[in-house]
Design goal:
Elements lengths: L6 H9 L6 H8 L7 H10 L3 E3 L10 E3 L1 H9 L13 H8 L2 H9 L8 H8 L8 H13 L3 E6 L2 E6 L1 H14 L5
Antiparallel strand pairs: 1-2, 3-4
Amino acid sequence: MKISLSKRQRAVLEVMSKPKIPAEIRDQIGLQKGNNLSSTIKELVGMDLLYCLTPKARLGKLYGLTKNGINLRKKLGFGDYHEPKGIDWKLYGWVVCGKQRKAILRAMIPDVPMSLRTIRERALQYNPRLSRTNTNDVLQLLRKKRITKQTIKDNNIFHKITKIGQEIEAIHVILRAPVEI
């Protein structure tokens, strides 16, 4: 079966070396924010080249390649595709679609209880627009999803990344790393 691809469809397949959210795809193929990438993604899903790893999510839609997409990507000379197994993609998608959530998770050090102030100071390098209130609100959301936990020592509140949070951040580091072709 011969497949005809538009320039944009081809560009999407080229950057799909690992699961990605539409914003990552858009940035990597050089589209402006207003451009309609969703129709291209829908077309590729309809062609059985892409699939959504988080179909029920409203935010954090994460797309990966189907077997047909992997094979076509290799035929086109775009290299390998890497998709880690055994992952809660819905939770991962929720984290990576939020700039503040990503920044805070990246700022936290495994097994080290950290104050809100320290987390915010470290997170500012990833998201300079992060306020103290935003940091606190995001930490509460992360705690509700069991990505972080809160401890109290000497009447001070500290936050610590949980095993789940460490796994999500490790996966994000793997998926954020450039893939050698």
